[in-house]
Design a protein that fits this description.
Layout: H1 11-24, E1 34-41, E2 44-49, E3 66-70, E4 73-77, E5 89-92, E6 96-101
Antiparallel strand pairs: 1-2, 1-6, 3-4, 4-5
Length: about 100
């Protein structure tokens, strides 16, 4: 699948939004863009995908805007978790089961 950011109308806007979120959460440069992530969170297996709603355990149906590799953790960003305000969801690399990248 080609890289996108939900609600972006074209690839230039998607790149701009992605860069803005990365700057907001202090993410390093991303060699590859993450499309899907699966990890263990509080004993449950969670999966998230850019453009889809967060898993029920997070008690919101917000769409995932971007997922960043930030060293020891992955940061999952939604409009109110990392993109505009508050902290993103953290998935420790030691708890990660699978990572899928955009083409």
């Amino acid at each position: 699948m080609d890289f996108f950011v939900p609600s972006s109308s074209n690839s230039a806007q998607a790149e701009s939004v992605f860069s803005s979120i990365a700057q907001h959460i202090a993410a390093p440069s991303q060699e590859k863009r993450i499309h899907k992530l699966q990890w263990k969170h509080e004993g449950e297996i969670c999966a998230c995908e850019v453009g889809e709603s967060l898993p029920e355990v997070f008690r919101t149906d917000e769409k995932v805007l971007a997922i960043f590799d930030c060293g020891d953790v992955f940061k999952v960003c939604t409009p109110s978790r990392g993109a505009i305000k508050f902290d993103p969801i953290h998935a420790s690399k030691s708890a990660v089961i699978d990572v899928e990248f955009f083409d």
